[in-house]
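META domain-containing protein: structure, please.
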Amino acid sequence: MRNVAFVLSLLLLVIISGCGVKITEPDVKPSAGNITYSGTIPCSDCRSKQLTVTLFDNKTFRMKRVSIGVQGGGNKVEYDLGRWSRKGNRLVLDNGQKWPLQFRYVSGKEITMLDQRGNEIVSKLDYSLRKRSFVDMLAGPMTMNGMFLSTAGTFTFKECKTGKSYPLVFESSDASVKKRYLALRPGAGKPVLATLKGRFVMRKPSANAAPREHIIVQKFKRFSPGGTCKDPGHPAVMLRGTSWRVISIAGSQEVLKGVRKVPNLVLSLYGGSIKGFSGCNSLMGTYTKGTTTLSFSRLSTTRMACPGKSGEVEQAFLGALRKASGWKITGKTLELFDKRNRLLMRLKAG
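Here you go.
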């Protein structure tokens, strides 16, 4: 009977693994306090989005987003990390952006996503994530910023979003990294802000030591001397989750003069929606973002009458959004461009 049960268990595992995304158990079992939630949530610019979140008992989290059927075909995989906290019946995931991702605890085995202000999402669609039977370590790879330090032939990296330090192991030896660090550091034993792409693994630092997480560096991107996690010294303003207010519209600069409240918008962190103010009415819509591309669709406003200048401002603002095809952030300024790379509008963060 024991052999029969074993065979049936193997058969069930094969059937389940063929029904969805392949999941690999971690090589080293995590502590019992770690929890993974996962589910499929709606997506405005793809067929669906698979979201997986692992909460670690040291109050950090890692997250994986898989956008299924993105524009142009294929899937898009993104990782993120940060710190989590529980506030009443809410789970708050802080990844360093203005609007943290929030969930409400439905039960001990289920959480449901809230909007960026922590309110319920009014929808018949399912925004729930459910607890997995095992922990997914969500190893990456992912791009990270942190304080890089080299001492006695070892490298450590204090990751900015979590505040946690990890030993670094380079996938391919690169002597130039240490040379650049020594040239850029402000003093002996002082760290330098760095950006790298890597993945997490469990390793023993030495033969008799307990396993701990290391970062395997797949690509060392750059040092940012003089920068810190709070002040990176390069554009820290994110396109999504930032409130953008208009400072100029091409061909309509005179229209904005004397306006008491200029148009503004916020691109949601998740779901591909926008909210804002058109200069006269509340604004809603959706957006599609690429590395350098950005377009808006389904733009709509409330129906308040807009006489005089407020109506002209609204018309110019919506016209620029409808033509938008590209974007660039310099410091705290967002520039939108049309298909021919002509400047349409400038917006300021804050």
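Notes: The chain has four helices and 21 strands.
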